[in-house]
């Protein structure tokens, strides 16, 4: 598989509703799409970095530079024996897993198409034909609005509700939601907004029977999470602080959490995501697939990932229409009335790209070609 060229496109797509986390409010996404070409076939990936370096160190503008100046030149022109080769080829770029992972995932999609396989089969998935779905609901302007949104999503069939939390939008909000929805599987995601000094406040959440609390402490911390987990009944789920399979080994050794959120971009692509999946499975730690407000290509990649066997909990991957008036794929990602997404069997990521619409939302495009020399 010789990679002849890599095309980067930056898309600008407004969200149907703002999405607020403990670190910022997003109205519009600036997403980088990666196209890798070999033998006249294109594979597609999505770089999942946010617009600002607040979730992790990556953001659109920097991810473009890293992908264009560092990742693409290390992959273009290479004769790869497998998509597995991409992760080691770019490993000496420190951090920037999303920029690396967007290119890596595109090469997996290309390999699947060259083999005539659906992506889920190419990565060794296929443990389920339907993936269970939850939703992630951002911080709202009022508790009433949050409750209204939860009602809508439960009526649509989603299997669990994740609420974003931050200091000032935590115990009282979650108590109200639990009172209104006594039986619903609920969880909360703090995106690193607390410290160990807040253990007393976080312990109050044990009263609400949450399925888990996600990344309460610093984005790069494992040790304090272990101390907090020892004090909590509620399981901790780790997101930001797990960037490699090795981090998960360390977190498991220290008992820093009982569940792991796997995000394809945060972990640098399918190769390391599979290794992370396997480390967790061997330790009896369930995983689920997180999201980064992806457009259709990233969404479809998440669906493929969530067919690996240890993705036993509902993830954050949900219908396109929750984010976009119009998605860049056809059909859009849709959910069943029982809150699942049916996995598709077409080669590659399983959906068609709406090229006209993608062109319409493209604000920047550059090609990195294999150097003839
Ligand atoms: O922490 O899981 C997170 C969105 C942006 C940044 C971080 C996170 C999220 C989500 C949304 O929770 C997941 C989604 O619906 O795509
Ligand atoms: Mg999270």
Question: Can you describe what's shown?
Answer:
This protein is globular. The protein is of the alpha/beta class and 373 residues long. The two termini are 18 Å apart. The protein has 12 helices and 15 strands. It folds into 2 domains: 128 residues, Enolase-like, domain 1; 221 residues, Alpha-Beta Barrel (TIM Barrel), CATH 3.20.20.120.
CATH class type of the largest domain: Alpha Beta
Radius of gyration: 20 Å
Show unreliable segments: none
CATH structural fold name of the largest domain? TIM Barrel
**Fourth-tier CATH superfamily name of the largest domain:** Enolase-like C-terminal domain
CATH architecture descriptor text of the largest domain: Alpha-Beta Barrel
Helical content stands at 25-40%
The main pleated sheet reads as: 7 strands, parallel
Detail the topology: elements first, then pairings.
Elements: E1 5-20, E2 25-38, E3 41-47, H1 60-75, H2 86-89, H3 97-115, H4 119-122, E4 130-132, E5 135-137, H5 143-155, E6 161-164, H6 171-180, E7 186-189, H7 199-203, E8 212-214, H8 223-231, E9 236-238, H9 245-254, E10 259-262, H10 270-282, E11 287-289, H11 296-305, E12 329-330, E13 340-342, E14 352-353, H12 355-361, E15 362-369
Parallel strand pairs: 5-6, 6-7, 7-8, 8-9, 9-10, 10-11
Antiparallel strand pairs: 1-2, 1-15, 2-3, 4-13, 12-14
Helix pairs in contact: 1-3, 9-10
């Amino acid at each position: 598989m010789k990679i002849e060229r890599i095309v980067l496109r930056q898309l600008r797509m407004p969200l149907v509703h703002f999405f607020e986390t403990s670190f910022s409010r997003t109205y519009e996404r600036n997403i980088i799409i990666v196209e890798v070409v070999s033998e006249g076939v294109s594979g597609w990936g999505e770089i999942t970095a946010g617009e600002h370096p607040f979730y992790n160190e990556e953001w659109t503008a920097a991810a473009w530079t890293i992908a264009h100046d560092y990742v693409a030149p290390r992959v273009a022109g290479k004769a790869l024996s497998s998509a597995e080769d991409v992760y080691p080829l770019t490993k000496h770029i420190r951090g920037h897993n999303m920029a690396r992972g967007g290119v890596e995932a595109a090469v997996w999609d290309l390999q699947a198409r060259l083999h005539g396989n659906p992506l889920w089969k190419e990565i060794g998935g296929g443990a389920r034909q339907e993936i269970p779905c939850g939703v992630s609901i951002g911080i709202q302007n009022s508790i009433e609005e949050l409750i209204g949104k939860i009602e809508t999503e439960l009526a649509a069939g989603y299997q669990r509700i994740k609420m974003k939390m931050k200091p000032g939008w935590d115990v009282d909000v979650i108590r109200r939601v639990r009172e209104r929805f006594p039986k619903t599987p609920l969880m909360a995601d703090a995106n690193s907004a607390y410290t160990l000094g807040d253990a007393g406040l976080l312990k109050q959440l044990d009263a609400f029977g949450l399925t888990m609390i996600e990344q309460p402490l610093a984005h790069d911390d494992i040790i304090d999470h272990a101390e907090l987990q020892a004090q909590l009944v509620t399981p901790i789920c780790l997101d930001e602080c797990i960037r490699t399979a090795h981090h998960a080994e360390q977190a498991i050794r220290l008992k820093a959490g009982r569940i792991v959120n796997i995000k394809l971009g945060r972990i640098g692509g399918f190769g390391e995501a599979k290794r992370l999946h396997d480390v967790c499975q061997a330790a009896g730690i369930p995983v689920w697939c997180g999201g980064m407000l992806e457009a259709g290509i990233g969404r479809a990649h998440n669906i493929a990932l969530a067919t690996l066997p240890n993705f036993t909990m509902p993830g954050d991957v949900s219908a396109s229409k929750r984010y976009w008036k119009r998605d860049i794929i056809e059909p859009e990602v849709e959910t069943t009335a029982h809150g699942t997404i049916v996995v598709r069997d077409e080669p590659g990521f399983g959906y068609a790209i709406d090229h006209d619409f993608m062109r319409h939302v493209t604000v920047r495009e550059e090609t990195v070609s294999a150097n003839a020399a």
